[in-house]
Amino acid sequence: MPPSSDFKRVIAESPYVFIIGVAGDSGSGKTTFTRAIRAIFGKDLVSTITIDDYHRYDRQERKELGITPLVPEANRFDLLEEHLEDLKAGKSIQKPVYNHDNGKFDPPVPFSPTKILIVEGLHPFITEKLRDLIDFKLYVDPDPGVKRAWKIKRDVEQRGYSPEAVIAEMEERKPDYERYVAPQRGFADAVIRIGFSKYGREASENRNVYHVTLCQNEIDRSIRNVDLSIDLFPIFSLAQRDFMVEFTTEDVEGRAMGALTFDGELNYTVVRKLERNIEIQTQVQPINLVKNGAYLTAGGIAQLILAWRIINRRIAIESAPGVAGGE
Ligand SMILES: Nc1ncnc2c1ncn2[C@@H]1O[C@H](COP(=O)(O)OP(=O)(O)O)[C@@H](O)[C@H]1O
Ligand SMILES: O=C(COP(=O)(O)O)[C@H](O)[C@H](O)COP(=O)(O)O
């Protein structure tokens, strides 16, 4: 791909359908963490499929069978594989629709592929075929306390459950989560862990500041050298808020992954440089995740780095011989 090309235009004109898989428990921030990707590429290029639509049983049937939606048999992965294969080949599908408001299925809807497709849900990496079809795999992994707070808030405010019902359901689902969902961390290119901020729980609750660890496998060799430096000078001169960065190696399902941890908030001036470097390297601009004068939270920085990783995976595919029209 020519270095000065307009990356969005190249993607729009390429036949390649790039699939991003986002796995994690219900209410773990899957939708929220893919927001940066949607914001960067825009509605025309990005669409999302939620795997909830591929449940085999409606809420009443699951109740009668005594199973949770986390059990693989409660989902139609064969149909999902078929649909992702069709979408990757540029074909439209008739997508099933699960309605969270009433726990039943609505009639299927026509769904056409966009050049970037986000597939999010409980089990996007459960079969080998799904893993092969997905180009970038992300696992979202909040601490139990964070997940509990997020899930209660969302399911009470948006899905009409009582807090007690949400808590009881979470307890009931735990063993199936550990058994069928959590092991998918082992297939992920990146795992995002989220805990309450070390600067106090109120920082999380009031300002969305979390302790965020981005575990990544080794960066693709194909990525060109890029300056991802953080400038210390504005940190010294604009350090009105607490911030920390840490790098460790962590064991993720038996794999050693590089773990970059952020907590707190960084001023726009510091983050804008990072964002600008990513814009120059990827030709995707403007990214503009932060507004002038504002602060970006640790989660926002993790999103920015993730977006950069994902864009680079897409560039690597574009440049590979014979794939997506590369030389
Ligand atoms: N990074 C985040 N920062 C703050 N709140 C979040 C974040 N991610 C998720 N949440 C909260 O958790 C709720 C559930 O997140 P959502 O992205 O809908 O989860 P999922 O798609 O995994 O079911 C959201 O409505 C939001 O209140
Ligand atoms: O586990 C999930 C996925 O939710 P999310 O969209 O949060 O990842 C839901 O419990 C099932 O889809 C069933 O839905 P319901 O409980 O509404 O019947």
In short:
By secondary structure, the protein is α/β, with parallel strands linked by helices. It has helices at 7-13, 30-33, 35-41, 59-65, 77-88, 128-133, 144-157, 163-181, 201-207, 232-237, 268-282, 298-319; strands at residues 18-23, 46-50, 93-99, 104-111, 116-121, 136-142, 190-196, 210-216, 243-252, 255-267, 295-297.
The tally of domains stands at: 2
Which molecules are bound besides the chains? adenosine-5'-diphosphate, ribulose-1,5-diphosphate
Main sheet characteristics: 9 strands, mixed
Q: How confident is the prediction overall: mean pLDDT?
A: 87
The portion of residues forming beta strands comes to 15-25%
Q: Report helical residue fraction.
A: 25-40%
- The poorly predicted ranges are none
GO molecular function: ATP binding; phosphoribulokinase activity
EC number: 2.7.1.19
Domain Phosphoribulokinase/uridine kinase: 19-193
Protein name: phosphoribulokinase
What does this structure look like?
This protein is α/β, with parallel strands linked by helices and 327 residues long. It folds into 2 domains: 1-142, 3-Layer(aba) Sandwich (Rossmann fold); 189-319, no CATH class. Helices cover 39% and strands 24% of the residues. The chain has helices at 7-13, 30-33, 35-41, 59-65, 77-88, 128-133, 144-157, 163-181, 201-207, 232-237, 268-282, 298-319; strands at 18-23, 46-50, 93-99, 104-111, 116-121, 136-142, 190-196, 210-216, 243-252, 255-267, 295-297. Strands 1, 2, 5, 6, 7, 8, 9, 10 and 11 form a 9-stranded mixed beta sheet that branches. A two-stranded antiparallel sheet has the order 3-4. The longest helix has 22 residues, at 298-319. It is globular.
